[in-house]
Automatic annotation (TrEMBL):
<dbReference type="InterPro" id="IPR001303">
    <property type="entry name" value="Aldolase_II/adducin_N"/>
</dbReference>
<keyword id="KW-0479">Metal-binding</keyword>
<dbReference type="GO" id="GO:0019323">
    <property type="term" value="P:pentose catabolic process"/>
</dbReference>
<keyword id="KW-0456">Lyase</keyword>
<dbReference type="GO" id="GO:0016832">
    <property type="term" value="F:aldehyde-lyase activity"/>
</dbReference>
<dbReference type="GO" id="GO:0005829">
    <property type="term" value="C:cytosol"/>
</dbReference>
<dbReference type="InterPro" id="IPR036409">
    <property type="entry name" value="Aldolase_II/adducin_N_sf"/>
</dbReference>
<dbReference type="Pfam" id="PF00596">
    <property type="entry name" value="Aldolase_II"/>
</dbReference>
<dbReference type="GO" id="GO:0046872">
    <property type="term" value="F:metal ion binding"/>
</dbReference>
<dbReference type="InterPro" id="IPR050197">
    <property type="entry name" value="Aldolase_class_II_sugar_metab"/>
</dbReference>
<protein>
    <submittedName>
        <fullName>Aldolase</fullName>
    </submittedName>
</protein>
<feature type="domain" description="Class II aldolase/adducin N-terminal">
    <location>
        <begin position="8"/>
        <end position="185"/>
    </location>
</feature>
Length: 212
């Protein structure tokens, strides 16, 4: 199922994530569903400069490694989200500067809707997951559960995860997530958010349906 052109596209998208500053060195990981198989950035790989020999190919249903490359230790939640969400094909775990600063705040924001782009693209509600060791079963279970009905989550003292139907949608969610957190940080905590009525107005006239 996985062809060389799929791997080349996966590398291109990984490098785009790195070029945008969403991951640094070995932080973060990326996955892409192609039919019944999934490409995942490999253990210890650097997403910004990912190479072919660091791309794992796994069977979606079982997690079986098909090409001998060990996937990221976070692949459990990548595969879990893809199994639970047939509408999703890409999962991105990233650690961008401002969003990660927010993830490490003593008082985590309860509302990220500082601009219309957040409810329209990132999600009107962003679950905040308490700290679990990276790669742990507890973290994987928490991310999978939260993303059954949300497209973006914040991991305390860790980073962020977004998903999308394709690379562009996942990338857009990550970038607007980072933008919202940049506003929150640069405002020094003195920021306004959209009211429920304003969000409902966006859903009615722009989205045409409720956001997750």
């Amino acid at each position: 199922m996985i062809q060389n052109e799929h791997i080349e596209e996966f590398l291109r998208q990984a490098h785009r994530v790195g070029d945008a500053g969403l991951t640094v060195c070995s932080s973060g990981n990326l996955s892409w569903r192609v039919g019944d198989e999934v490409l995942v950035s490999g253990t210890g790989s650097w997403v910004p400069s990912l190479t072919k020999d660091k791309v794992a190919v796994c069977r979606l249903e079982t997690g079986e490694i098909l090409n001998g490359v060990k996937p990221s230790m976070e692949s459990v939640f990548h595969l879990g989200v893809l199994r639970e969400r047939p509408d999703v094909n890409v999962v991105l775990h990233f650690q961008s500067p401002y969003a990660t600063a927010v993830a490490c705040m003593e008082d985590t924001p309860k509302d990220f809707n500082v601009t219309a782009e957040v409810p329209c693209h990132v999600g009107a509600e962003i679950p905040v997951i308490p700290y679990f060791r990276p790669g742990s079963k507890e973290l994987a279970e928490a991310v999978i559960a939260a993303m059954k009905d949300h497209n973006s989550v914040l991991l305390q003292k860790h980073g962020q995860v977004v998903c999308g139907k394709d690379f562009n949608q996942a990338f857009e969610r990550a970038m607007f997530f980072e933008m919202a957190c940049r506003i929150i940080v640069l405002s020094g905590g003195k920021y306004k958010t959209l009211t429920k009525e304003e969000i409902d107005d966006l859903e009615t006239y722009i989205l045409g349906k409720k956001t997750k």
